[in-house]
Amino acid sequence: GFDGEFSVEQSTSAQAIERGILIAIDEINRAGGVLGGRPLQLVSKDNRAVTARGVKNLEDFARMPDMVAMFVGRFSPVVLEYVNLAHELEMIVLDPWAAADAITHNGNKPNYIFRLSLRDGLAMPLMLRHALSKGMERVGLLLPNTSWGRSNLASAKQYFLEASAPHSVGIEWYQWGDQTMIDKYQALRASGAQAIVFVANDSEAVILCREMAALPLGQRIPIISHWGVTGGNFVNLVGNDLAKIDFSVVQTFSFYKADPAITQQVLAVSARLFGLSRIEEIESPVGVGQAYDLTHLVARAIDLAGTTDRRAVRSALESVTQYRGLVKFFERPFTSDNHDALGAEDIFMATYRLDGAIVPLLPEN
């Protein structure tokens, strides 16, 4: 199953995750399926980024016969609301995007939530170190007033306790749906910020970048962004204004860094299923790559368990080894103590090319 934010305006993340799952399912089923010949099937439901709708989807999935697991989408505040219910229902939750630490670090044993994605505890230190690598010793934090924003603040505070630079000149909080960001940006700049660490989705980033592009050149400082911006139509909406701003974004996956042979194989299936054959055509690539690998991992776990029983598959996911995926080679993605398949070594900074492709940045030191 997949509970995604399909009808959120300008969002591309749910569509990307669904494509990643469907590409993997196509490969698995053409190779004989699971359990000696049973095909995998995807059932997708739209939560419209509304928690109550997602909770109902989770309950519906849990009642379906042979429903092994539920993928979730981009928005951490929505996914966090599923954690307790998923454990009550013993429903495996597969997270290829949402980054709040508490999604997997949830205190449950056994833990039914598995993530192959970024988490805020890794993203924030990288963003702050990136500022430092650019020579910026004073940063301002621009955060959403949500559980995701608070998750990032906790990670930032931990970093500031352990590192002497960069240091924070302050925090500005915004609300979802705010129609302007520039006053908060200017307040941080006036406090001495040389760069802004920005936690946002695409709609907020569009507003800030348009407003910044209208400023005199001397008032534009670098924006170091969390990856929510890559889940929508950000580049097309910002247009030429993006070239006026020093904008970088955290990523965990790039087709430009992936194994070329696996990339070509995935693009061939993508071309057949969706008519998308070039890297540049694939929107929200992290969603595609990470959902693809998670699908292959859960298929391996089903075979390892020898059943679609969720308790058995959950346990088997902690024992899958030696998987050569699109994101990376996984020696052992999950253990009983660690349900995050990616670590600090797997994240990097990237930027947007003018054609909209997200390309890795080389380290600046």
Task: Tell me what you see in this structure.
- The protein is α/β, with parallel strands linked by helices.
- The protein folds into 2 domains: 2-118 and 256-343, 3-Layer(aba) Sandwich (Rossmann fold); 121-251, 3-Layer(aba) Sandwich (Rossmann fold).
- Helix content is 39%, strand content 15%.
- It contains 12 helices and 14 strands.
- It has helices at residues 13-30, 51-63, 76-80, 83-89, 120-133, 147-162, 182-190, 202-213, 234-238, 260-274, 285-305, 310-317; strands at 2-4, 44-46, 69-72, 92-95, 113-115, 138-144, 167-174, 195-198, 223-225, 247-251, 323-324, 329-330, 348-352, 358-360.
- A 7-stranded mixed beta sheet has the order 7-6-8-9-10-13-14, sandwiched between helices. Strands 2-1-3-4-5 form a 5-stranded parallel beta sheet, sandwiched between helices. Strands 11-12 form a two-stranded antiparallel sheet.
- Helix 1 crosses helix 10, helix 1 (13-30) crosses helix 11 (285-305) and helix 11 (285-305) packs across helix 12.
- The chain is globular, with a radius of gyration of 20 Å.
- The chain starts with a strand and ends in a 5-residue tail after the last strand.
- The mean pLDDT is 95.
CATH topology of the largest domain: Rossmann fold
Number of helices: 12
Q: Any idea what the CATH superfamily of the largest domain is called?
A: Response regulator
| Low-confidence runs of at least 5 consecutive residues | none
CATH class of the largest domain: Alpha Beta
Tertiary shape: globular
Please list the strands of the largest sheet in the order they lie side by side: 7-6-8-9-10-13-14
What distance separates the N and C termini? Answer: 44 Å
